[in-house]
Amino acid sequence: MFDLQAEVERFFEPASLPAAGVPPEFALIMGPPATGKTRFRRERFAHGWVVLDAADVFVSLERGAIINFPAHLEAPLNVIGLAVARVALWERRHLVTEIIGWTADDVNALLDTVAGLGYRVAVYAVRAEPAQSWRWNIGRSENNISAYYTEPYHRRWLRQAAEEDQTLGARLARS
User: Fold this and answer.
1) How does residue 169 score in pLDDT terms, banded at 50, 70 and 90?
2) Nearest to 35, CA basis, from 100, 127, 135
């Protein structure tokens, strides 16, 4: 039903590979719901970055239909999202994602995981005035899915891909 390879490849561009000798960067965009995280990401990280976003994957998979997230698309959503995380980390590409950042433990674990793979980490805190956040939230389109819903996917995909990366690295070092 879906061309999984094409769905994964659309997240990658050659510019997301760092120059030789330059460490890859991981940008973590955090903030409460409806504060402009996606707006900021689209302005600041439009090119040269792999975007790990369950909402973007989902919207592509729903093919113009309006479906509640994640509904019957959860299985392909997970396959594609994890594949994007794997390739991005294995190839040490510049990577950006968004989260709310519910707990310091979850955020620190995510940052430690990515930094442990040799990434330079930058955290961007996005805020907005409450009245503006409210306007953005009530004006949210049907396909504008909050990081409130997508954050668990992003953390899980990055954690699993990083664990696999470390396991593979250890195997290669032993061989």
Assistant:
1) low
2) 127
